[in-house]
Design a protein that fits this description.
By secondary structure, the chain is an alpha+beta fold. Helices cover about 35% and strands about 25% of the residues. A 9-stranded mixed sheet has the order 6-7-8-9-12-13-14-11-10, sandwiched between helices. It has a 3-stranded antiparallel sheet with strand order 3-4-5. Strand 6 and strand 7 form a beta hairpin. It has 3 domains: about 55 residues, no CATH class; about 150 residues, Trna Endonuclease, Chain: A, domain 1 (3-Layer(aba) Sandwich), CATH 3.40.1350; about 150 residues, no CATH class. Bound molecules: zinc ion. The site of zinc ion (ZN) has 7 residues, from loops.
């Protein structure tokens, strides 16, 4: 850590060049254990807890990677807002944030995470902040996400659960001084996501990068389409019938070749659902075509039942933020837009005979239109 308490109970910065560490004793402002001052030719000056004395209030033992990135981000945010604190301790929730700042009368805590922590810890810290009116912003070290090509990433369950405001993932690398925002994420399967990648050099970061969604036309849509085709035609041959959904599909008289092109599409708020996109949308589709008419409420109940039966799995944090419901809302909007559903929410007509005539181009044009970025 950068800030400790000295003998006089005053905050001392490890980066202060006049620090008199030979005469002073330092303590951790959070856990009150004594800490050691450290510096060296390759070390940023910092305070460290003694060995075997992990600080209960921090989420990870600090590496140089963590210290460097934290201080860089702090300095940049300090140029942008007036209220900002490094390593602020919140006694009411017993948590210490890497960076705390206020903007437009709202409070934010930045957590820069460089190592794997448990989901429970991440969830507990997120809920802790929310309980005192602070919005957490998880920034992960770039190494924690595996990038596969231009639009695809592999995102672990931990990083998924740290999805921040507007469902973006923030990745930072202090050695490159670069913030990478994974925006408009669309899950394909449990860990594979398509995304618009937005790179921002440290000195160009603004507060809006953290709190607003980076809305751009989704350039990955055609790649997503390709992957869906490949998956249905190829990989299904190897794994297909072990997956209950594909068994259901065949029993219902469909096959991977006749599955409508609006099953397995990237939605704006699809992010909260971990079940592969073809499967959850397919499960819903197979239920819908069993009937002629259905109300919006009944669709929501159907979906809820699938969640309760664990046929559909959600991202742990999103679960609490009702993001899965938003995905369903997006999907209903698409089904109306392409004409599979018609009428009003109290009773939709289901147009089963239209299924095979809806083309893939129509579906993807509708998706772009619903994004609101293309007229
Ligand atoms: Zn401590």
């Amino acid at each position: 850590m950068i800030i400790a308490l000295n003998d006089k109970e005053c905050f001392e910065w490890s980066t202060n060049e006049e620090i008199d560490h030979r005469k002073q004793k330092y303590t951790c402002p959070a856990c009150r254990n004594s800490v050691l001052f450290r510096r060296g030719p390759h070390l940023m000056p910092h305070f460290a807890h003694q060995k075997n004395q992990a600080c209960y209030y921090s989420s990870e033992a600090e590496s140089m990677k963590h210290l460097t990135g934290k201080v860089q981000l702090y300095k940049r945010i300090k140029e942008l807002v007036t209220v900002v604190c490094l390593e602020k301790f919140f006694s009411e929730i017993l948590q210490k944030s890497d960076i705390y700042f206020e903007y437009n009368r709202k409070k934010y805590a930045v957590e820069f995470q460089c190592s794997q922590i448990s989901l429970e810890v991440l969830k507990k810290r997120t809920m802790g902040y929310l309980s005192i009116g602070i919005t957490p912003i998880w920034v992960f070290h770039t190494d924690l996400v595996k990038q596969k090509g231009f639009y695809e990433v592999k995102v672990s369950k931990l990083v998924q659960s740290g999805l921040g405001l507007n469902h973006q993932v923030f990745l930072y690398d202090g050695s490159k001084k670069n913030l990478l925002i994974l925006s408009q994420l669309a899950p394909f399967s449990k860990c594979t996501y398509f995304t618009n990648k937005v790179n921002i050099p440290l000195n160009k970061i603004t507060i809006n990068h953290f709190i607003r969604q980076q809305l751009l036309p989704r350039k990955y849509l055609s790649k997503f389409r390709e992957k869906r085709h490949y998956h249905l035609n190829e990989s299904i041959r190897f794994e297909g019938l072990r997956v209950p959904f594909y068994q259901n599909l065949y029993v219902s008289g469909f096959s991977t070749f006749t599955l409508p092109s609006f099953v397995g599409v990237p939605l704006k708020n699809g992010i909260g659902i971990r079940t592969p996109v073809i499967e959850w949308q397919g499960l819903l589709f197979l239920e819908l075509i069993k009937t002629n008419k259905i109300s919006q409420n009944e669709i929501y109940l159907l979906f809820k039942k699938m969640l309760l039966q664990n046929l559909i799995d959600t991202v742990p944090i999103c679960e609490d933020l009702k993001v899965a419901d938003k995905a369903l809302r997006d999907y209903i909007d698409l089904l109306i837009e392409i004409g599979f559903l018609s009428g009003k929410g109290y009773l939709y007509q289901i147009n089963s005979e239209a299924v095979q005539s809806i083309t893939e181009d129509q579906v993807y044009n509708c998706l772009s239109r619903l994004d609101g970025l293309i007229k």
